[in-house]
Amino acid sequence: MSDEIDSGLSFDNSYAEQLVGFYTSNQGDKAPAPSIIAFNQSLARSLGLDLDKLSQRQLAAILSGGTHIKGATPLAQVYAGHQFGIFSPQLGDGRSILLAEVLDDSGLRRDIHLKGSGRTAYSRSGDGKAGIGPVLREYLMAEAMQQLNVPTTRALSVVSTGEKIQRHKPLAGAVLARVASSHVRVGTFEYFADRGQTDQVKQLADYVINRHFPQSSLSPLTQSHCYLQLLSEVCKSQAALVSKWMNLGFVHGVMNTDNMSICGETIDYGPCAFIDSYDPKALFSSIDSQGRYRYNNQAPAALWNLARLGETLLPLIGTQAKQTIEQAFNVSNDFSANYRQQWLERMRRKLAIYNEESEDLALALTLMNSFQLNYQKFWLDGVRSKLGLSNAEPEDKKLADDLLEIMAAQKVDYTRLFRALAQAVTGLQGPATDLFSHPLVFEQWLQRWSDRRERDPQTPVARAAAMNLVNPIYIPRNHLVEQAIKAAEEQADYGPFEKLQRVLNQPFTEREGLEEYAAAAGDASARYTTYCGT
Length: 534
Known about the structure:
Elements lengths: L13 H5 L4 E3 L9 E5 L1 H7 L8 H9 L10 E3 L3 E3 L2 E3 L7 E8 L5 E7 L16 H16 L6 E13 L3 E11 L5 H9 L3 H15 L1 H4 L5 H26 L1 E2 L21 E2 L23 H20 L4 H8 L7 H15 L7 H28 L9 H15 L3 H12 L4 H4 L6 H14 L6 H9 L9 H14 L3 H10 L10 H4 L16
Antiparallel strand pairs: 1-3, 2-8, 4-5, 6-7, 7-9, 8-9, 10-11
Helix pairs in contact: 4-18, 4-19, 5-6, 5-9, 6-9, 8-9, 8-12, 9-12, 10-11, 10-12, 13-16, 14-17, 18-19
């Protein structure tokens, strides 16, 4: 093709080649006047983009979606999903395309994905476009999470398309290029399972095992047990992921099954936010009226999603035993009665098609139950690190829970408190106690923590240094993110976005002149609301 561009990327499009029928080929729309707003140069080089030969105009054309790229096979993936507990049998990439897969400089397979590139076969009534504000939000959030050591999709670029899109008002159009280990979701499995297409479920499971969990296919267990191990690996990776969210005070906001990545990366930064004043019921999403995905319900929500994945894999694992299923998935005290009843009713319907019992099933459900054990372990290990504890004692969980209870009662800033605790270790307690309106109860906790540290030999300096490596001083403060987005949307001023991005690139290193980026919002009690935009 005359307008085809050679990007220098080494494409290896396994999804397109191995999973025919799991997508629709789809080229993005040609942007009227594409222009690069943000570009992650280090990530681009690791992917193999030939930055020495490609002009800015060519890069913008490639990363906006409407240009043919040599070796690429752009496509829109199909999937289903439970959205706030309600099943939608077909969703799919309605405003995004999988541009291509590459092998990066470490030999790891990466998806390059474009959001906001135009309509696809799965757009329904939408235009497939995205505004500059939500796209900048995802760029900021994704790269912040990367620097905070949380598994995440990466942000490669933001390209302004040079057009206006109509929402509540005309907005500048933009396309986000993001990079992920893959974009296979729980909802991808649900799409084929709902249609009774067990062969396709198996095909997808085999693909995921080979791509993400090759150790599962090399297991000495029987062939059916590789799907048990797949379920186990996904449960473990999700437990690790959500525990990291919780340790940082991050609220995803829309944990639908189509937003849960099989490879264990944070995906789809829509109505997400970080907690300022600690509130275990923190909720920022404009569309989550029931608080299904509030901060302290993220682990139960993840387990609920994993149960949906487990359902799709059951035909591959073995036939089902009603009593074992009900007992295993009913163990979580964190589930509300409503969640539990919904699940039992679903399984009773499903069990009508099975007649035999299976030991495989009991093993599968045991693996599912391990999610909570893994989550508690990962979360507590994270809290111990935040508190500067290198060994484990049985009362550590209560020590942490009591601190969180005190913080919630006095609306103490989550990030600032944990950062200030490192100073308390070296004898400077003021920065921590000053965060409390009634510090006496906190000072009593400090004494308990001090007693606990006596049984964990480290020098104060070493302990404080270790704590500062896991307790960030800079996070994407909600008010700062909004300021950056507002400047971009209303004035096409990207300076606040660029400076915030630079600050967040080193979240654990305190720097002079950046005090405003470590400070809480002026009105910490204000209700902060985010919206699904990308």
